[in-house]
Amino acid sequence: MSFDPQPELRGHTLVVTVSSHDGRPVLDGRAYASLARTFHEAAVDDNVRVVVLRGLAGCFCLGGDFSEFLDSTKHQQLIAAVTDMFRTLATFPKPVLACVDGDAVGVGCTILFHCDMVIASSNSTFRVPFVDFGLVPDAATSILAPQKLGYAGAFRFFCLGDTLGAEDARALGLVAEIVADGSAEEAALGRARQLAKKPVAALLQTRGLLKGDTGVLCDRIDQEITLFQQALQDDTTLKRLQRIARLAA
Length: 249
Prior knowledge:
Elements: E1 8-10, E2 13-17, H1 29-43, E3 50-54, H2 75-91, E4 96-100, E5 103-105, H3 107-110, E6 117-121, E7 125-127, H4 141-149, H5 151-160, E8 164-165, H6 166-172, E9 177-179, H7 184-196, H8 200-211, H9 214-231, H10 235-248
Helix pairs in contact: 1-2, 2-9, 4-5, 4-9
């Protein structure tokens, strides 16, 4: 059976798979562009009231495809795709839920900070090893993580690179609900159906008030991307990324 990660509209819920187009649990340039396009379209589609992000079976997402960042000729196009996806997520006007069943690493974890609810199976883990790679956090999580986890929790998570289990992630506020293994998607779709039945204008207005000024997030995304690009000019960082890419191959 061929792999098909195309978005699927179920009632008023758009189900989006976070993965590469060749079936790997990572995000590459094509996947970043596809996600951005999907969210752009969903933002203006009245049939879509809620978006649910899901990963592949047994793994949410293992992060970005670092092998692409080793080719300097692809940097400009890749950075543009990453920036567009993050900015689209930050300004998306409708509820976004995530169902995590397994590992959420790197960008596969930072994307969750833009979700209104994260529902995880009990075996799920969360890790952001950016500092270990010589990089800074992305997706405006340098703002969102302290807001959600508190400064001390965000510092431990990002600077120490601690791996959080589902219970720890819920205690810190990253995860809203924990469910039995294999049932996270069903639970998220149930919550999505609840939200889709709400009066649309009141739901969107309330969410917008809770989110606040998303322009601040976009400015921080640009700042993080600039630091990320600078890190790609550092030989030591590139050697780290080369080792990671070899291990992942």
